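Fig. S4 source data, part A: sequence.
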Amino acid sequence: MNTSHFNPQVIRKTVVAMLGACLLWTAGASHAERLKDLASIQGVRQNQLMGYGLVVGLDGSGDQTTQTPFTVQSVVNMLQGMGVNLPPGTSLQLKNVAAVVVTASLPAFAQPGQTLDVTVSSMGNAKSLRGGTLLMTPLKGADGQIYGIAQGNVLVGGVGASASGSKAQVNHLSVGRISAGATVERAVPTTLGQGDAVYLELNDTDFSTASRVVEAVNKHFGPATAAAQDGRVIRVRAPQNSDDRVAFLGALESLNVTPAQTNAKVILNARTGSVVMNQAVTLDSCAVSHGNLSVVINTEPVISQPAPFSGGQTVVTTTSQIDIKKEPGQVLMLKGGTSLADVVKALNAIGATPQDLLAILQAMKAAGSLRAELEII
């Protein structure tokens, strides 16, 4: 091949242009999200299940029956249901049994025979559920109907040991999990296949995002396919046939939509001192001054000892020394339009702790220089 016609400068410019186009395309596409990450389909949801049961086979780490009478009552009722009648006045001292609450989530479209993972939590004073076996426990929904049955060996991720008053423990011992420990016995009715439309529910109410979703759906599937009912719910026309509807919903969830920019928000946790800001937080021009004032009080005993054979008494008094330290305050100028990175850098520069940030950000909001919604939790 004759390469004398290729200009290295032209090739270099072409490569740079192609890389620049790829970077621009990547930057533009990085803001788009799948519709399934922005919204959910109305009616497609999980349902919480809960049941009360017994865990047996514990190595002496079960409930103390003197303090948890419901455990003994549950064991008695279970034995009676199996045809075992205890003599009147029998006092059971059980160490290997624990009363537990079993919880699980029933996914959408679950059918009888499918298995679920369950979480087993002690509700008494059992020291550990390690090595125990959950007996058959009905799992009920909010309507009181039984939707699953749980049973199996409890797997506890923690470990602990105690001897002679010393105790060592890693992780939690009173909560365990059983993988595929429950079997679905009843399906939850769904209305997804009824009617000529499905409804999308945005995770966050936003009129701009709802408008963009409608525009993307109509552009892909045709005009008048989608219509926004409000800032959260979008009505989408769907095929009547079940096969066509499933394929339609699969394509619908895969659509890429660029959501509207999130609202600028600062979250303050007054209990822990945590401060979280999103990327949209900006500032107007302002000045921030910060200084610490510390007061240290030291109290020491002073003993006055009389001379020998003087007949005096020993007197004990105290003396206090008060030291007040005030660090010089720093005044920092923050220019308008400052980004989140500049805000964090500036507040760190003046030595502001998380507790100080609570007061500083509140003052900046009151002064009108913080362009963000301030939420205290």
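Fig. S4 source data, part B ends here. The chain has three domains: 47-80+93-156+172-184, 191-257, 265-376.
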